[in-house]
Amino acid sequence: MKISIISDTHFGHETCTLVQKQGDSIVMGPKYDAFLKAVGTGNDYLVMVGDVLDYSRASYEHAYQYAQVFFQQIQRDGIAHQIIYIAGNHDADIWHIVQQQRAVINRLLHGKLPVPFEHSVAGIIDDRQGSPHRGFTLSSGSAKTSELKYGGMFLDSITGTTSPTVFNFVFPSLYIVTDEESIIVTHGHYLEPYWSILGELLMKIVSDDLNVKEIDSETMVELNFPFNQLGCTGIGHTGVLASLARQIERQINDRDLAHIQKYLDRSITVIDNAANLGWVKKVIAHYAMHKMEEHILDALKNSQKSHYGTDFLSKQEVQDRFRRFYSACLLEIKALNDAMNLGMPKPRKFVFGHTHRPIAWNDPQPPTLETASKAAPQAVTLYNTGGWLEDEGKFCGAEVFIHETERGFSSVSIR
């Protein structure tokens, strides 16, 4: 078996280096040849770990135009028999679209009523010699069933109806198990505040009424669903509002907060005018809102991008979120082992993307997280796939991870 793993292609983004616009045409980008050389041909699976299509920065039509050129080319080049697609934050809605197709649209088209969404569907690649589960499996944690075969969906036809490509959808994690080790593969956006904060707040505010004792992968996705959808197409496809959001994002990155302060000042004025309060309460509320404005501006001034940052994994809050995510994965693995008798060991390695900061498989000092959880006191080693965008005119760097049955894991650096 041969598997190649990449992430953060961001099809539709103006600085994508795998596919780009040239005049009125969309052509292969300057890094495609290096990508082709790294992954080779005849892969059983090309695993694409999130932010594949960039719904939050590009219109649907542009994202799919770029993606079609890429997927048609890799089909011609014979790169992979099938694609395993794990959604990230910039393409979170593709998982929701697939859910709509499987659980609602396909059912109604066949005269059946909808079934519940599966918020977390694990992918398992088992490459252990003699394993009865050897190969690729999809499961919700309760059982392996044909209805959970997240293939045969709309994206298969992006390469044409006469020569479709098989896309298998997994979220949020893929587990790869070999005779030597097991690893977790996920996009990594749940390690960042915006994408996980709603679940964290809800567990502090309404946990007693949620009747949730432990957060597994399914619950984690459910709790964070509203903000995740808002941050993807909820902002990315709102016309003039989307343009303004991107402008504000650029200004925050440049520490130009004049417009932010103007909007906050106006917000205070609107609230002041709308609030039916006595003058004492109004003075107190006005003071509180201005203090909040100061805190917001200070936080933005001191904020650091997770993309391209060198210290992302050293932050305590990121490590705490990693531990929560890892604990959720362990609960999912236990459910899979119980339901399917997989015998999957606790993963000690973690491959993710999102930050666009590659960490090679042969890195002499890869970052580790000591005591990843109470259930797994040993350290977990972290690796990163990088990304295929440019940042301020410079290619950020990608890492192509490869697993071959006889050779194990390795990676190829693209610079």
What this model shows, in words?
By secondary structure, this protein is α/β, with parallel strands linked by helices. The protein folds into two domains: 2-194 and 306-414, Purple Acid Phosphatase, chain A, domain 2, CATH 3.60.21; 247-303. 39% of the residues lie in helices and 20% in strands. The chain contains ten helices and 17 strands. It has helices spanning 32-39, 60-76, 92-109, 193-205, 207-210, 217-236, 240-253, 258-274, 279-302, 316-340, and strands spanning 2-6, 19-22, 25-28, 43-49, 80-86, 122-126, 135-139, 166-170, 173-177, 182-186, 349-352, 368-369, 380-384, 390-391, 394-395, 398-404, 408-414. The chain has a seven-stranded mixed sheet with strand order 7-6-9-10-11-13-12, with helices on one face. The chain has a six-stranded mixed sheet with strand order 8-5-4-1-16-17, with helices on one face. Strands 2-3 form a two-stranded antiparallel ribbon. α4 packs across α6 (217-236) and α8 packs antiparallel against α9 (279-302). The two termini are 27 Å apart.
